[in-house]
Specification:
alpha/beta, Aspartate Aminotransferase, domain 1, 13 helices, Aminotransferase, aminotransferase, Aspartate Aminotransferase, domain 2, seven-stranded mixed sheet
């Protein structure tokens, strides 16, 4: 195996300095080494991709759809995205120029941040928020500015936003709702109140709504509906149809901004995968695809209610999540309050893997994230192990 010439390492791109692997995946890899562990760590749906979606991808392969797609994706898929956004969220986008297909929401985020941020720019982020955002921002030489929302029920208020804008003069804001890790989402009124503040600025809004189909209670209200002229909307099929490994996301936004996003996307990946797009068309544009996501959503609600009830009874502080498939729970008083230490102790003693909250930014300290995208059997056993840990480690 070759050894790198040492001199080559002296002056690599400095925006990568200090960055490491995603802490969620680091802990998950450690947990995977424990025999008999139950992992509620990754945001990975336990459902399999529905058969009719798999068949659509197989048909694409059999039909020899093996050549380069257009950079922004097949026209048929962009039309399916436009129809999905219109049907679900009353959003109107032109498939030709205002939508691009990406290799998952992560590539969509990378493309949007790449065109929005120059070195030294600041971008606002409500916190706690998805840990990958910080690294994607820093890769672009920009600075993430966190707005701690713990005291406001994990919902950013217009007052907090106004103060952060005045103090930082940000270039953009990165939103995520329903939220990973908190499971909290925003009402129509809350979105409109934030949009009214941002409308007074020239900030770009990057709104990651990948969990929009997993909203419980009120219908999801997209930020792009409130402020379309400033918003780049990110979504995809990973969470709604359990297609995480298929890597199909998309971005929609104003044509002039999207021209830049499509250019960044082209330089990143050239084009998305044909069989994956074929499956995603089936997921987004058919009645069967609609039923798939509704069936999964109904099961997630049962799992959420079960986990929330069990953890609340054990003394965890649990704001009832109304979206995504996470519970963000405050560690009970008297137990290990360092959330990293708590999670490692729980893993070592009771073979249960939860994710520590501090990796999601300010406001996440002393919390743990539980993914209930697992079978009910695994969740039942996980709650038994958590109860055993709580009972066996009661403070004196």
């Amino acid at each position: 195996m070759p050894n790198t010439k040492p001199a080559l390492l002296k002056d690599l791109k400095h925006t990568y300095d200090g960055l490491g692997a995603n802490p969620i995946r680091v802990f998950d890899a450690e947990a995977s080494k424990v025999p008999g562990v139950i992992k509620l760590s990754l945001g990975e749906p336990d459902f399999n991709v529905p058969e009719h979606i798999k068949q659509a991808a197989i048909d694409s392969i059999v039909a020899n759809q093996s050549h380069y797609a257009p950079t922004p994706g097949w026209p048929a898929f962009r039309e399916a995205v436009a129809g999905f956004l219109q049907d679900r969220y009353d959003l109107t986008y032109d498939p030709n120029g205002e939508i691009t297909v990406t290799v998952g929401a992560t590539e969509a985020l990378h493309a949007c941040l790449d065109i929005a941020l120059n070195p030294g720019d600041k971008i606002l982020m409500p916190s706690p928020t998805f840990s990958l955002y910080d690294q994607l921002v820093r890769i672009n030489g920009a600075e993430p500015v966190y707005m701690n929302t713990e005291s406001t029920g994990f919902v950013l208020t217009p007052e907090q936003l106004e103060k952060a804008i005045a103090a930082n003069h940000p270039k953009a804001i990165l939103l995520n709702f329903p939220s990973n890790p908190t499971g909290v989402t925003y009402s129509k009124a809350q979105v409109q109140a934030l949009a009214a503040v941002i409308a007074k600025t020239d900030m770009i809004v990057i709104s990651d709504e990948i969990y929009s189909e997993l909203t419980y209670g009120a219908q999801h209200y997209s930020f792009a509906k409130a402020l379309p002229e400033q918003t780049l909307l990110i979504n995809g099929v990973s969470k709604s149809h359990a297609m995480t490994g298929w890597r199909i996301g998309f971005v929609a936004g104003p044509k002039e901004l999207m021209a830049k996003v499509i250019l960044a996307h082209a330089f990143n990946v050239t084009c998305p995968s044909n069989p994956a797009m074929a499956g995603a068309i089936e997921a987004l544009s058919t009645e069967a695809g609609r039923k798939d996501s509704l069936a999964m959503k109904a099961e997630y609600i049962k799992r959420r209610d079960f986990v929330v009830a069990k953890m609340t009874a054990l003394g965890f502080g649990v704001p009832n999540p109304n979206g995504a498939f996470y519970v963000f729970a405050k560690i009970p008083a008297g137990y290990i309050q360092d959330d990293d230490a708590f999670c490692y102790d729980l893993l070592r003693k009771n073979k249960l893997a939860l994710i520590s909250g501090n990796g999601f930014g300010p406001g996440g300290e002393h919390y743990v994230r539980v993914s209930y995208a697992a079978s009910m059997a695994d969740l039942e056993e996980a709650m038994k192990r958590l109860a055993a840990y709580i009972n066996e480690n009661k403070p004196a």
